[in-house]
């Protein structure tokens, strides 16, 4: 989503505080759809030459499921950033380098607005864990839960079986 930066354009070199709410669309991560809420960027921004300098903190909540027990998990994204957006002039004389690697991707803005959606998405994805767990020690799996149920039934079955065996032995005697 776009953030208005005309304040900084009018006063180059001056720092302004900002608080920007954004949205991150659902992402497919390891065959799971992770959704996001409360995406918030806050900090300071300033125009230095033809570049917009933006630094601060991104917070968001990722809604996923525990990789072990499948319980819903809310993961708090909390990441610092310090980025430079290069201004694209209206005549578009700026040469765009071919995007070979993600790392070399240049952040740009046009006019008096800057789109922070891509930055928010990139920062958030980098901050996500390799797998979500409801608890560091969670290792229970749905299959293991089923086995526990089976174990709980066994004490009920044992007396019957034992009794049946006694009866059978009685008949045989
Ligand atoms: Zn779990």
For the structure shown, list the relevant keywords:
173 residues; 6-stranded mixed sheet; two-stranded antiparallel sheet; 3 helices; rod-shaped
The end-to-end span amounts to 86 Å
Order of helices and strands: EHEEEEEEEHH
Ligands bound here?
A: zinc ion
* Strand residue content: 35-45%
Number of helices: 3
Structural class: alpha+beta
Overall pLDDT, averaged? 83
The helix content, as a percent range, equals 25-40%
Radius of gyration: 28 Å
Largest sheet: 6 strands, mixed
Compute the number of strand runs: 8
Q: Which runs of at least 5 residues are low in confidence (pLDDT < 50)?
A: 99-103, 144-157
Shape designation: rod-shaped
Structure description:
There is one protein chain. The protein has 173 residues and is α+β, with helices and mostly antiparallel strands. The protein is 27% helix and 38% strand. The chain has 3 helices and 8 strands; from the N terminus they run E-H-E-E-E-E-E-E-E-H-H. Strands 2, 3, 4, 5, 6 and 7 form a 6-stranded mixed beta sheet that branches. Strand 5 (51-65) and strand 6 form a beta hairpin. The chain is rod-shaped. The protein starts with a strand and ends with a helix. 15% of the residues are buried. The model is unreliable at 99-103 and 144-157 (pLDDT under 50). The protein binds zinc ion (ZN). The site of zinc ion has 8 residues, from loops.
Quickly describe the structure.
The protein has helices at residues 6-10, 117-127, 142-172; strands at residues 2-4, 16-22, 27-29, 32-48, 51-65, 72-87, 108-109, 113-115. The chain is of the alpha+beta class and 173 residues long. The termini are far apart.
């Amino acid at each position: 989503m776009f953030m208005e930066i005309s304040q900084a354009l009018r006063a180059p070199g001056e720092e302004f505080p900002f608080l920007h709410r954004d949205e991150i669309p659902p992402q497919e991560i390891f065959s799971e759809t992770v959704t996001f809420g409360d995406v918030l960027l806050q900090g300071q921004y300033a125009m230095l030459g033809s570049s917009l300098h933006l630094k601060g903190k991104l917070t968001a909540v990722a809604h996923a499921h525990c990789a072990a027990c499948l319980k819903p998990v809310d993961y708090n994204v909390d990441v610092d950033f310090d980025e430079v957006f290069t201004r694209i002039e209206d005549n578009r004389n700026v040469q765009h380098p071919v995007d070979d690697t993600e790392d070399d991707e240049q952040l740009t803005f046009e006019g008096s607005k800057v789109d922070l959606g891509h930055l928010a998405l990139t920062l958030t994805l980098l901050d996500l864990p390799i797998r979500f767990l409801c608890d560091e020690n969670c290792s229970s799996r749905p299959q293991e839960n089923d086995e526990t149920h089976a174990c709980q039934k066994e004490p009920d079955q044992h007396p019957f079986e034992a009794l049946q065996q006694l009866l059978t032995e009685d008949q045989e005697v």
